[in-house]
Write a structure and sequence with these properties.
Six copies of one chain form a homohexamer. Helices cover 32% and strands 24% of the residues of chain A. Chain A has 194 residues and is of the alpha/beta class. Chain A has a single domain, classed as Ribosomal Protein S5, domain 2 (2-Layer Sandwich), CATH 3.30.230. Bound molecules: calcium ion (CA) (12 copies).
């Protein structure tokens, strides 16, 4: 899928799945960091629950010493499009993935979309709209999707053709999301020359 | 009970009992800490009274020198599910227990659920919904419950079969809650080798 | 009276008298302090006027160099029950007493309840509901009450039996409240051994 | 007048004149200072305009190097009674006088009441309710009142008996208010012994 | 004009022209500075747009290194009368003039009133109410007025007698306002003696 | 076009295109910086989405180390006219351009207007009102316009005469906007002398 390939080519961007008034849709979580006083800037007209999702994602990584330089830097998380209000907890796994990608420098696999609430312990809780979200992932050309394990029963509602063309990964812990979604760290240029 | 066993396997998580529109329910209080500027991050769509409960819990421990590194670290308390508004003072004992577990490194016993308001002095005040909360504890497979001493009369409303299958601990001081609910500190690996 | 005896056994807790929808009642002001960045945490669903009362109480003590370590420590004042909204200036003398007790380490006498607004200079201003408050003090087993001097005329409304069983102290300055309500400093353990 | 004599016996308290729903009234502005982080605490249910009056009063003194230690200390200004909402700019001269008294250690004359808006340059602007305010001053036993020069025409409305019994000082600059209202600095105890 | 002469006799005060419900009026912008933590205190019941005008005025001067000590000091800008709500961008040139006067120590000419919005680059944008504002300037005895160049066509509405008695300066850049409105720096007393 | 030539003659000012109730219009984004505590001051009655646009623009530059001294200085962004409320994400490219111009010292070309939302990665997203905006650019005498690549289909609605008289640059990445819109750095005066 050209768009997610281009969007996720740099570390810090992950592909999420959302439900809108017009069915499911793919959205991108963009995270970046900069030197300066530590803090978290959130843009994209995020509602209260979604803002809390970003705090949960960051605390999950910081409390496990997986936030790297993020703990000391200024972090900005944006969810385009800028004028569209967004809310809900189901972007939790995508938030953790975008921030873990930024912290580690490992890009997110461009073929993978994801949805799921995350708790502070990293448990993945079920969300709504699985059918619409996976149809949207299929339309957008994604080949892998990550969903909460407790949402497995919702897969029955999916057309068989769609279910067959997607690698569907039900997960219970966000650590498994990171293992599935992050590219291996790219070898540094100097080691390639050996 | 598999879920509370898994959820409370790490220090910082305690099992509470709540009343919702649909009867009683079990909820988990998740607390974690990280280096950084001291402060308290609260998520889970907590109402004003519940936010005050967390402050009371933390001050109770800090003023007694039982907060350990928590006083100097950044603390995040989350109550899943992220999109469900929650309020009321009755999670007070659970808040103290989760934070004391995090501060001491002693996990919370996975078989125990609890409910009760706490004052800044650690007195445990009565709460509502005892019957529904204990039925929910029973359904969830918990074998021990901690309730405020002043709620003992409410136990009459409980079916005898339920009352017999639960170890019910009425308490007047939150210090007794901690004595009942926290696991012993695990011996360090090095001392086991002796 | 067992409850106030237990509640006021540690420094920082004072017994106030309040008017609720259901007549008069006894309430406890709990104050505690901890190391950390100086500041004032207020809980108990306090309204604007009651929050200002705490600030006035603290400034009264600080400006007279009677706040001891409180000026440099983090202070938490809580008024149970946690979910009941409270407001009004009439807990002023109780706030000063709780904080002075905490600062000095001298417990508050468990037999004494009090009511009265305090100004920044320490003047005690009249309040309402004297009759209901003193009836409540009597019911709760208190033997001494402190009221504003300007409320003396309200004592006529009190049943003679109640008036006779209470030591009623009308005061005009909060310094007199402290002299009446605080226990003597307890001799240190080491000096007892002499 | 006994009350103003007692209230203004310490530096930092000045007697103002106000209009309430029930005619004119005397009010006291109480200012105190304490060590700690610089800042301004305002209590007494003050409205926006009255809060701005305090800021103007303090800036007037600070910009003229007349604030002494106030610039570096924590300042608390309270206007009893604590539960009565108050607003309007006409307490401006009283605010300047209370703060100047606190900064200089010179008490305010207990026989003097005052009213008038102050600008940042110290100009005294006219206010309303002169008649009711002066009647209230008279009733309270004050013998001197300070009013804005531009309010002189309002004196015609005053009963002659009242006008004759009050020393009325119309002023255009707040420096004149301070010259009229502050007691001379009291000689230090050591110099009295000479 | 006696009032503006007296009001603008010290640096930091500039004469503005405003439109009120009752026609045009003259207002004074008072700016002062004091040592202490840098910051901007705004009083006079200013609306959002007028508060932004002060920030624009200050940034204009600071970004051009014309703010002198203002950048490091605490600044207070007040617009009497204190209880009258004020809003709109047309006091922009007056704000810049008052702050530039304060920064430079050069008083504002007492004969000059002004109106005009200012951009961050110092461009002077057109405003409304030119006729009423100039009539008010005339009534108040001002002899010079500064207006935006783009408002020149509005001068046609002015009675010829008024237009003839005022020196009207249309300007496009606020630098020209400062050149017209600020007095020359007064020679220091020591150099006068030479 | 005289106005944009004059307005954009200094670094930090870029020409945007907007849709108002009365069709399209040209607006100027003014950015300036000053020494002092780092921070972002926004004026011009900007709505939430437009304020977020400025934060996105600044983070885009800071995270790419293209913000130069802006990261450590105080930045003020103003959008005249001061009293007109403005909102929406379509000034994103103009915000990035104004800030990049300020950071680099390279002025923006006075002949170029622009419109387009920007994401945190610098992707240019489509906006509305292309026809009205380009008509406004034409009326204002601009000769070049930058629009989002995804808005190319909207060009069909434009009169051929207008389309022919404008150099229209569809872009997908804001880096291309900067390459098109910024003047070359002017050689320093000293090198001119060689
Ligand atoms: Ca960098
Ligand atoms: Ca959702
Ligand atoms: Ca750690
Ligand atoms: Ca409850
Ligand atoms: Ca301690
Ligand atoms: Ca002192
Ligand atoms: Ca009351
Ligand atoms: Ca008034
Ligand atoms: Ca000075
Ligand atoms: Ca205006
Ligand atoms: Ca500079
Ligand atoms: Ca728009």
């Amino acid at each position: 899928t050209p768009e997610s390939a281009e969007r996720t080519s740099v570390p810090g961007v992950a592909t999420g799945l959302a439900v809108t008034g017009a069915g499911g849709d793919v959205l991108f979580i963009e995270a970046t960091e900069m030197e300066g006083e530590p803090g978290l800037v959130l843009t994209g007209q995020l509602g209260d629950v979604m803002k809390e999702s970003v705090q949960i994602a960051l605390s999950y990584l910081r409390s496990r010493d997986q936030a790297g330089k993020l703990a000391d830097h200024r972090i900005h998380v944006h969810v385009p499009a800028g004028a569209v209000p967004k809310d809900g907890p189901s972007a939790g796994v995508t938030m953790v993935t975008a921030l873990a990608s930024l912290a580690s420098g490992r890009p997110v696999k461009s073929s993978v979309g994801m949805t799921g609430e995350v708790t502070l312990q990293g448990k993945v809780l079920p969300i709504g709209g699985v059918k619409q979200k996976l149809l949207a992932a299929h339309r957008a050309g994604l080949t892998g999707v990550i969903i909460p394990k407790r949402n497995e029963p919702d897969l029955d509602d999916l057309p068989e053709s769609v279910r067959d063309s997607l690698n569907i990964h039900p997960v219970a812990d966000v650590a498994d999301v990171l293992a599935l979604a992050l590219e291996d760290a790219e070898p540094a240029a100097s080691t390639l020359a050996a």
